Amino acid sequence: xxxxxxxxxxxKQLVILSxxxxxxxxxxxxxxxxxxxGFVKATIIHIPVTVGSIILGPKMGAMLGFVFGASxxxxxxxxxxxxxxxxxxxxxxxxxxxxSPWALLIxxxxxxxxxxxxxxxxxxxxxxxxxxxxxxxxxxxxxxAGSATNTLLVTHLIYFLxxxxxxxxxxxxENAVYKxxxxxxxxxxxxxxxxxxxxxxxxxxxxxxxxxxxx
Length: 215
Description:
GO terms for molecular function: transmembrane transporter activity. The chain crosses the membrane at residues 15-40, 61-82, 102-122, 134-162, 193-211. Keywords: Membrane, Transmembrane, Transmembrane helix. InterPro entries: ECF_trnsprt_substrate-spec. The structure is a single chain. The protein is mainly α. The chain is built from seven helices and two strands, in the order αββαααααα. A hairpin with a 4-residue loop joins strand 1 (34-36) and strand 2 (41-43). Helix 2 (46-56) runs antiparallel to helix 3 and helix 5 (117-128) runs antiparallel to helix 6.
């Protein structure tokens, strides 16, 4: 009986993994996933990755993060904006005729970690906060952690790896790049985190019921 139940849960998890992968691909292929702001693309694709991390665990979450990174790579390659060179090695770096392999690090590492960190944050908070009624707080904080992982890692990797080139692309002085980075964190990162907290909490609570988890 236990084996059957375990097999059923695994099947549900694989179905959810496939579903979220499809959602990520669909979002990436439409304006919903990557919102063009001229100089950068804001995104909400980290939300299904974060939900997948909390529901399915860090391994499957990392898989969803990889799909997120791949979708970013493809989108920035076929529909580039002026900063797409930091996400795709196929887009020439300003001042050169070729792309940089460092773009792959920015494109994939933060997104894979979005599928890992929320799970650990959620589990840690659940151990610290025993009251099940406060479960929504654990979910919301984990969602914010996932969103912050994406925003902070991407922007700071851009700063450390492409500071000069990013300044050229944006038409600003090199010593003003961090101000630009900060404006992106505030202007894009905070709204993305708020939306992630709300949506992630609602979706996870529903999926916990579907998966028969005692959360």
